[in-house]
Write a structure and sequence with these properties.
The chain has 162 residues and is an all-alpha fold. It has 4 helices and no strands.
Length: 162
Amino acid sequence: MEKPNAMITLESMLASPGKDNLDAVSSLYLGAFVAAQRLVALNIRATQSLMESNMSSVQALARARNLENWQEAQSAATQQLVDQIVGYAGDFNEVVAENQKELSSLLQAAPPAQASGKPASKLPAMSEVVQTMLDAALHSRNAMLDMATRVDQRRQDAGPDK
């Protein structure tokens, strides 16, 4: 039977004397920061890739001389967009899963903190810091997917001149 996770707070860890607690807090923050860096880098690469792909697609559509060529270019652009979104979602989920696994192992290895004398409900939980970072990354991912959806919708609405 698994023990229920005790809420670990920054204040309770720092209230306990010892280098182990400071090292544990440092490791938790470093892990969360590295995950945030990876997600930001992923979002930048994905945005750049989408922009380059969109420019390439616009050029291909502009070169289309007839309806058949235009439809082929449109189909290729749509497939490329779908592939990019699927790849991005997979990479995003991989980063989040790795981060959650690392943070869970750090929390399990953290030395037990002494009670600080304050009710736990009034102390900021370490998990709240991590959750806020993950929420921000998820918001960024959702914005990326929304942008891709809008681009795709505009392509469908544009259609060739008849």
